[in-house]
Each structure stands twice: as C-alpha cells, then as structure tokens.
Design goal:
42% of the residues lie in helices and 20% in strands. By secondary structure, it is of the alpha/beta class. It has a five-stranded parallel sheet with strand order 2-1-3-4-5, with helices on both faces. β3, α3 and β4 form a beta-alpha-beta unit. The model has no long low-confidence stretch (mean pLDDT 95).
C-alpha cells in the first residue's frame, strides 16, 4: 500500500538513516533520510514531512532542538518520533517537552515504527 505520507528520517549514522528510510519506502511511505540537523532542515525546503523520526543524539544540534525548528518551519508541524539508545526519565521528559509524540528505544523495531506511522497516514492514530 502506498501513502502520500512523507516521513523524514534523521540519524547521525548514515546507514541507520538510509536503511530505515528504505524500509519505510518499501512499506509505502515517501521516506527521506538526513544525517545532520542541517541536512534535515535543508530537506524541508519545498518538501514538508507529515512525520519526522529523529535520533535524539545528533551531532551539532540535538534532536529536541531540531524538532522545535521543524515545527516552526513546516506549514504543519510533523508528528515527531524520537529514537534513542538512552532510556531515562530525563530523556523521555525532554522529548515530551520538545513535542515528540512517540519515544522508541534502539534497537527499534522497524515494523512497530511503520505501524505507528500507518496509523497517522490512514487517520487512525
């Protein structure tokens, strides 16, 4: 099933960003990878993701700061999904304060992520 549901995937590890975007593409999403916050912000010029999957520990700007900038720059703020290897109460609180709707701990289950995004794409979330 193909969706007209664009998803930005941001991870400082290029293989992680690309492989997750490729997987989501196979599941029918218009998924595009980015490896830095600057790369992600450049991606949203003329293309507006409905969701953004963001690793919280990016080099340069962190994922929470990027989430706030995306919300400001996109015509409709994207649904935000945090990914991280650090599952602490503080990390969850910072992510929630930055507007993340979901918090996934690495290694994430790509099928679970696709199911979450499908819920939004089909209006069921």
């Amino acid at each position: 099933m193909a969706f007209t549901f664009p998803v930005l995937v941001v991870d400082s590890h290029p293989d992680s960003a690309t492989s997750l975007a490729d997987y989501l593409g196979l599941r029918g999403f218009d998924a595009r990878p980015a490896v830095t916050a600057a790369d992600a912000l450049a991606r949203v010029v003329g293309w507006h993701p409905a969701a953004a999957v963001i690793h919280l520990r990016l080099s340069g700007l962190d994922g929470c700061t990027l989430a706030r900038l995306l919300a400001e720059r996109c015509p409709r703020p994207p649904v935000l999904v945090a990914t991280t290897g650090l599952d602490t109460a503080d990390a969850r609180a910072r992510a929630a304060a930055a507007g993340f709707a979901h918090f996934l701990v690495k290694p994430i289950d790509p099928g679970e992520l696709a199911d979450v995004l499908t819920g939004y794409a089909t209006g069921g979330a």
